[in-house]
Automatic annotation (TrEMBL), chains A, B:
SUPFAM superfamilies: Voltage-gated potassium channels
Residue ranges crossing the lipid bilayer per the database entry: 62-81, 87-107, 128-147, 185-211, 223-244, 256-282, 407-425, 437-454, 496-515, 561-579, 585-612
Biological source species: Esox lucius
Cellular component terms (Gene Ontology): membrane
Pfam families xrefs: Ion_trans (PF00520)
GO MF annotations, alphabetized: monoatomic ion channel activity
Domain of life: Eukaryota
Name listed for the protein in its UniProt record: Ion transport domain-containing protein
Keywords attached to this entry: Membrane, Transmembrane, Transmembrane helix
Length: 653, 653
C-alpha cells in the first residue's frame, strides 16, 4: 500500500510548466548522467555529444558490467582446466576460450575509447595496462604453440598477468584505491622492513656466536644453528611463530639462559615489529581514506554543478532548478523511485517551499538518493488479511498473546539449552539421535507460531544478517547488534577479498610453475609403496611426510590456493626440502606480502569499520531527512542508512 | 660552563623583598609539596599540619619508594626458593623473609595512614586490599605450618596474591590505570567473546555432523572429530593457529571440499574476531586515556591553585605571586635546577616582565618543570682543551677534515658490507675467522677518529638508544629515527611489562600447584630409561616427548615463566595428556587473558605511541618555551621533549 498524499496538488502549486524543446531533452539526459555518475562516484570525463552519451549509458549498463566480470571470471577460471589441471581440457579448447575472453576485453576497451576524449584515453595508465596485458597474453599464446610445435618445453607465463585485469577495468575503482593506499604506505613499510631485517640479521649473528661451538643437535639429530643463512631463515620463521617452540628447544635444553635470547627476540621481532607494521598500514590507510573522500566529494560536486548548469532557470536574481525539471530528472535517474519517496526528497531539498531550489540544495541530490528510505506498508499477519473473523476469534487471540509473552521466549531458550546438552551427549545412542527430530519439530512450531502472530516484515527483516538476531536472542547478546553490522559491512565490501584473490592467484601461478609435480598425494586407501614419502624420495623420514601433508602441493590451482591459505595462517614450507633451498625466497616473499601488508590492511579496515560504527554521529543531511519524515508524519518508518560520510568512506574500500 | 647572564640584576628590578615569617615558611613548604604532587601527577589528599607534611615528604622520598619496590621484588622472588624450587632454601628461611616483607608492607601502610585523613584511608579500596593480602598471607603461613606439623598435605595458596601488591601500592598508579582500562573494556569484550564462543560451538556442531560418520583417522591412527567437546577444543586451538594445518589434514585428505569449512572458520574466528577484539580494546583504551588525562589535568590544576593561594599577594586589583616567592618555591621543588634554567622558566611565565605572575601563568609551573631543557656546554674535543697547538696543527686538521668527509662514511659502509659477507662465509676456515680481528680493529679506529674530531656530546647523545643511529647509518635508514623514539617510548613505559608480570606470576603459581612434577627433564647426556617419555609413562609415544619438549614444565618458577611465554606465542599444551582433560581449562583461560586482552592492550599502546609520534604537533606551552629560548638567544641548545599532552597521556600507561 503506497502512502497516499492528502493533497498532491499542494506540491504542484508552484510548478512552472516548461515546454520541452529537443535541446532541453538532451540537457535532461546529460544531467541525469551527471547525477548518476555523482551517485555512484564515477570519475569518468566523457564526450557530451548525444551519441557519446548514449554509448556512455550503454557502457555503464549493468548488463555490460556483468559481462565484463563474467569474462574475467572465465579467464581466471581457466587455471582449473589448464595444465596442471584439476579437470584437464585439451589445450586448443582453453586457448580458444582465452582468445574469446581477450577479444571481449578488447571490445570493451574500444567501447571505452569511443566514450571518452581520445587524448584522455591514451593518458590513462589503466588502459595502457589492459592493452599490454592483452598483447602479452597473445604473444605468450603464440610462443607457447610455436614451442609446442617444435617439441620444446614451454611455460604459459602470461597467466600471472590475468588478475591484473581485475584491477585495471573501469569497474575496479575500489580495488585500485586499495592498492594505491598500499603503494602509498610502501616507502614507510620498506624502511621499517629494512630495520626489521637488520634486527633479524643481528640476532642471527648473535645466535651463531652463541651456539656454533656448542655442538647442539635437534631432535632429528641434525646440527643446530651452525650455518648463518639457516639461522636467519629459522629466526625469520620464528617471527611467524610457526616453528615455536621447536627452534628454541635444543638451546633451552642446554641452558635456561638461552631462553632469554629467544624471549627478547620474540618480543622485539614478533610483537613490536608486527604492531609497528600494523600501525604504519593503519595510519596510511586512514590518511589515504581522508584524501580520497575529499577528492571524491570534489568530483561529485563538480558533476552536480554541471548538471545544475544544464537545468538552471532564471528566477529574479537567482538561478534555480524548478520542481518540474527536478522531478523529470529524478525519474530519469531512478525510474523505480516511488512518488512518495520522491516528494519526500523534494520537500527535504526545498525546505522553504518555494517550488524551486538553488545550487546548494541541488548538489545534495545524489546523497539523498543514496539514502535508503524504506516505506513500510501497513502490514497485517497474512491470516488476518485472509480470514479476519477467524484470526480475531478468542482462541486465536489467546495463541497470539501466548506467543508475544516473555515466557514463550524463555521456554524456547530452555529447549535450545536442552538440545545443546543432547548434542554433546553420545552420538551413537539411537534414542538420543532421534530426539533431534523432536527438537526440529519444536523449532518449526516456533517459526509457524511467530509467522501467525507477527507481521511478516517483523519476521523477515531487510538485512539477511538480521535474521541471526533470532538465534542471538538465545545467548542474550542483544548489545552486539551493532557489531553484527560491522561484520555485515566487512562482508558487503568485497575489496579485501578481491585483493586477497589477486595476490593468491599470482602466487599460485608462480608456485605451480615452480613446484608442480614435486609432491604426490596418494588416496587414503592407496597402498602405493611411495605413499610414505609423498612420492618423492627426498621427503623420506621428513616431518612433512610423517604428518601426512602430501596433499599440500602445487599440483593444481585448487590445492595451490588451499596451500597458500595454510601459509597465510602458519608458515609451513616443506617444499624447500624437495627443491633448491632458494625456494624459501618464494615463501618469505609470500609471507611479506600477505602477512605484513594485506592482512594488516584487513585489520585496519575492521578497526575503522568498528570505530565508525561506535563513535560517529549521523550526518546533517541524514538528520534533516529524518526530521522531515517526522514533520510530515508520513507514517513512513525509515530505515535510514548509517552515517553518510563514514559509510561513503568505507564503501570506497 | 653555565650560560652567563649579561645582567642578572635585570631580573631583580621588580623584586619585592618579603621577610619570611615562620608561617610563610610553612606555606612555602606546603606549596612546594603541591607543586611536586602536580609535577608527578600524585592525587593523594594529605593532612596539612606541619608534622603530616614532613611525614608526607618522607613518604614520597625516593629511598622509601625504592625500599617498597625492593621488598616487593624480594617477596615475589621467594618463588625461586620455595618448593618447587629452583634453588631450594629451608622453609623456615623463606617464611622468615616473607614475614619481614609483610611487616615492611604493614609499616608502609601505617605510614600512609598517618599522612592522609583517617576516614579517607578506610574508604580507599587499595588500602583494604593490602591489609587483606597481608592478613591472608599470615593466615596461610600459620595454616601451612600447622598442617606440616601434623604431617598433612599443605599448599601455599596465598602466593597467588603476591603480585597484587604491585597493583595496590601507592606507586602502582600506572598499573592501576591500565587495569582499570581493561576492566572498562570487559563488558564489551565479554559480549564479543560470547558471540565468538557461540560461533565456535556452532562450527563444532557442523564439524561433528560432517565428520562423525566418515570414520576418518589422524596420522596417529586416532579417531578424528568424533566427540563434540574434543572438536570444540581442537577448533578453539585452531583460532590460535597452533594446530594448523594438522587439524585440517584428515578432512582435506578425504575431500577437497572440507577445506572450505576450515577456510570459512579461520576467516571468521581467527581473522575477523581477533580484529574485533583488537578494535574493542583499542577503542576503550583511547576513550579511557582521554578521560584519565582530563581528570589528571583537573587534579593538577586544583593542586596548583592551592599552591597559588598559599603564596599569593595583593598587587593592586590582582592577586599575584612575586618572583622572589616563585624562585624560593622552584628551588624547594627542584633543588638541582640551574639558575639559567630557572630564569628561563620565569621569563616564559612572566612574559610581560612585570616581576610577578597571575594564577594562569602560575599553574603552568609543573608542565614547565617537566620539560627537559638541556643546557649544552660549549664543548670542544678533549684534545683541543688539553693541547690546543697540537690539535690545531696542519696534520691534525687534515685528519679532522678526512673524518668529516662523506667518503669516510662511505668507506666504513663498505667495510661493514665486506664484514657482513665474511660473516656469512664458512665459520670453520681459520683465515676467515681471523679477519674478524681486523674488522674489530677497523671499527675501533673509526670510534677513536670520531672521538678525536667531534665534540663528546655529538658522539654520546642523551638517549642511550640514539647511539644506535650510528649503526643505522649503515643501512641508510635515517627516516625512521622517529620510529626509534616510538620503540624507546615503549621501553621506557614499563607498564606493559608489569601487567605481563602480574598475569604470568598468578598463572605460574597456579600452574605449579596443579602440574608440578608431572614431567621430568633429563639432561642431554643422561641415559635414564625414562628419558624417552619425560619420566611419565602417560607420555609414551606422544609427540610432546618426541619433540623433546620435556623441559617445558611447571617444576619451578623459571621454567613455568618460559612455558607461559611459549604458550603466549603458540598454544601448546601437552599437559592435558598427563593430567585430567579439564586441565585444558587452565590453558584456554590463559589464552583468553593473555592473547585476547593483554596482547591487544600492548598493540593498542604501540599504535597510539606511533600515531602520537607521527601526527601530533607541539603543544602551545612547548613552542612558547622554544620561542623564548630563541628570543633570548641564550646559546642554549634545547632538547625540548616531545609533545607535552601526548607524552603525558602515554606516560600514564
Amino acid at each position: 500500500m503506497e502512502v497516499a498524499w492528502s493533497d498532491e496538488s499542494h506540491f504542484l502549486i508552484h510548478h512552472v510548466r516548461v515546454r520541452h524543446l529537443p535541446g532541453e531533452h538532451m540537457n535532461l539526459d546529460l544531467a541525469a548522467v551527471y547525477v548518476s555518475d555523482a551517485q555512484y562516484n564515477r570519475k569518468i570525463v566523457f564526450d557530451t555529444s548525444p551519441q557519446a552519451i548514449r554509448l556512455y549509458l550503454l557502457y555503464n549498463h549493468w548488463g555490460m558490467q556483468f559481462l565484463v566480470y563474467a569474462f574475467i571470471v572465465i579467464d581466471l577460471a581457466l587455471a582449473i582446466f589448464e595444465d596442471p589441471a584439476v579437470i584437464p581440457l585439451p589445450i586448443w579448447a582453453t586457448t580458444m576460450i582465452e582468445i574469446v575472453c581477450l577479444s571481449a576485453f578488447g571490445f570493451r576497451l574500444v567501447h571505452y575509447a569511443k566514450v571518452i576524449p581520445l587524448e584522455r584515453f591514451w593518458k590513462d595508465p589503466k588502459n595502457i595496462c589492459i592493452i599490454v596485458i592483452i598483447l602479452l597474453s597473445l604473444v605468450d599464446i603464440i610462443i607457447y604453440w610455436l614451442l609446442k610445435a617444435i617439441g620444446l618445453f614451454a611455460v604459459r607465463w602470461s597467466r600471472v598477468l590475468r588478475p591484473l585485469l581485475l584491477v585495471n577495468i573501469t569497474e575496479g575503482r575500489q580495488l585500485r584505491r586499495a592498492l594505491r593506499s598500499i603503494r602509498n604506505a610502501l616507502p614507510q613499510i620498506l624502511c621499517v622492513f629494512l630495520l626489521f631485517m637488520f634486527s633479524v640479521f643481528m640476532f642471527s649473528l648473535l645466535a651463531l656466536k652463541l651456539f656454533v661451538k656448542r655442538g647442539l643437535t635437534t631432535t632429528d639429530g641434525d646440527a643446530y644453528f651452525t650455518s648463518y643463512l639457516e639461522i636467519v631463515f629459522d629466526l625469520y620463521v620464528l617471527v611467524t611463530t610457526a616453528n615455536s617452540p621447536d627452534v628454541m628447544m635444543p638451546a633451552y635444553n642446554s641452558s635456561v639462559f638461552f631462553a632469554l635470547f629467544f624471549f627478547i627476540y620474540i618480543l622485539i621481532n614478533t610483537y613490536i615489529f608486527n604492531s609497528v607494521f600494523l600501525a604504519i598500514v593503519y595510519n596510511n590507510y586512514k590518511k589515504y581514506l581522508k584524501q580520497e573522500v575529499r577528492q571524491l566529494v570534489k568530483v561529485k560536486r563538480h558533476k552536480m554543478v554541471q548538471a545544475f548548469e544544464l537545468l538552471q532557470e532564471k528566477k529574479g536574481e537567482e538561478t534555480v532548478v524548478t520542481q518540474a525539471s527536478w522531478n523529470q530528472l529524478v525519474r530519469l535517474v531512478q525510474p523505480d523511485i516511488s512518488n512518495a519517496h520522491r516528494e519526500l526528497l523534494w520537500s527535504v531539498s526545498d525546505n522553504s517551499k518555494k517550488g524551486c531550489i538553488g545550487k546548494g540544495a541541488f548538489v545534495q541530490l545524489p546523497d539523498l538518493l543514496n539514502m535508503q528510505v524504506t516505506i513500510e506498508k501497513a502490514e497485517q499477519p497474512p491470516l488476518q488479511t485472509l480470514l479476519p473473523p477467524l484470526y480475531l476469534s478468542i482462541p486465536s487471540r489467546l495463541v497470539c498473546r501466548m506467543v508475544r509473552h516473555r515466557l514463550f521466549v524463555y521456554t524456547y531458550d530452555l529447549i535450545t539449552l536442552v538440545n545443546a546438552v543432547f548434542i554433546c551427549l553420545d552420538e551413537e545412542n539411537l534414542l538420543i539421535a532421534n530426539t533431534e527430530w523432536v527438537f526440529l519439530a519444536l523449532y518449526l512450531l516456533e517459526i509457524l507460531l511467530k509467522l501467525y502472530t507477527f507481521k511478516p516484515r517483523t519476521f523477515f527483516s531487510r538485512h539477511k544478517f538480521w535474521n541471526c538476531r533470532q538465534i542471538l536472542d538465545i545467548v542474550f547478546i542483544l548489545r552486539i547488534v551493532r557489531l553484527i553490522r560491522v561484520v555485515d559491512r566487512i562482508k558487503r565490501s568485497g575489496v579485501q577479498g578481491r585483493i586477497f584473490s589477486v595476490v593468491y592467484y599470482v602466487f599460485a601461478m608462480v608456485g605451480m610453475e615452480l613446484f608442480k609435480g614435486k609432491i604426490h598425494f596418494f588416496d587414503v586407501k592407496s597402498t602405493h609403496p611411495d605413499k610414505a614419502f609423498c612420492g618423492n624420495p627426498l621427503l623420506k623420514n621428513s616431518s612433512f611426510a610423517k604428518h601426512n601433508y602430501c596433499k599440500n602441493n602445487f599440483n593444481n590451482v585448487i590445492s595451490s590456493f588451499i596451500l597458500l591459505l595454510e601459509l597465510t595462517v602458519v608458515n609451513q614450507c616443506g617444499f624447500t626440502a624437495v627443491t633448491h633451498v632458494s625456494a624459501r625466497i618464494f615463501f618469505v616473499l609470500f609471507h611479506i606480502v600477505i602477512v605484513i601488508i594485506i592482512i594488516n590492511i584487513f585489520i585496519a579496515f575492521v578497526l575503522e569499520a568498528f570505530f565508525v560504527e561506535y563513535t560517529m554521529e549521523k550526518s546533517d543531511l541524514q538528520s534533516s531527512l529524518e526530521k522531515k519524515i517526522k514533520e510530515l508524519e508520513l507514517g513512513i518508518k525509515q530505515y535510514v542508512s548509517d552515517n553518510f560520510a563514514a559509510r561513503l568512506a568505507l564503501n570506497l574500500f
